[in-house]
Amino acid sequence: LEKMTDLVAVWEVALSDGVHKIEFEHGTTSGKRVVYVDGKEEIRKEWMFKLVGKETFTVGAAKTKATINIDAVSGFAYEYTLEINGKSLKKYMENRSKTTNTWILSLGGTDYRVVLEKDTMDVWCNGQKLETAGEFVEDGTETHFNVGNYSCCIKAVSSGKRKEGIIHTLIVDDREIPEAVE
Q: Where in the cell is the protein located (predicted)?
């Protein structure tokens, strides 16, 4: 296995189907550019005479668009920034925390990462989109699904406050699971 000697940047990106690791190699003498997503080579370019520019690729099951920008800072120093869906990684993650809820839980010795996409009400678990059944209840809605042999439910209830909106709670075996912060 070739040693990644020109590794200049590593990012962790939390998407609905999991947390993805993006690694970027930039050979400033050879002009080489290599992008790895979760250890798999996505792009390889050798002998690039232009050392600045961008590389665009996709990440995860939903083929989310990602771009690495390569900018010269001074002399032979370079800055590498990652954009997800056209937004800086920081902006993307801030926006994502408003549009998704994430729970990390351990059931029967197995770890699960459950993600609710609030706009579509899609539920993901460990990289797979789950079959769900939604129903209206007295104080809101319930979205039912299974994780392993466990029946789960995400309850959506109005907070009563306009700024807070709807509160989503994951319940597994009558136990409330606290939301994770990624």
A: Cytoplasm
Please give the structure tokens belonging to residue 94. Answer: 């801030």
Domain with CATH 2.40.128.180 in the chain: 7-85, 99-177
Q: Supply φ then ψ for residue 92, to 5 degrees.
A: -60, -45
pLDDT category, 25, cuts 50, 70, 90? Answer: very high
Q: Alpha-carbon distance 119 to 101, whole Å?
A: 11
Q: What is the CATH code of the structural domain delimited by 99-177?
A: 2.40.128.180
Distance CA 124, CA 113 (A): 8
Q: How confident is the model at residue 30 (pLDDT cuts 50, 70, 90)?
A: confident
Mean pLDDT value of segment 53-69: 96
pLDDT of residue 3: 58
Distance, in Å, from the CA atom of 67 to the CA atom of 178, rounded to the nearest integer, reads 33
In angstroms, the CA 102 to CA 125 distance is 10
Domain 7-85 belongs in CATH node 1.10.760.10: no
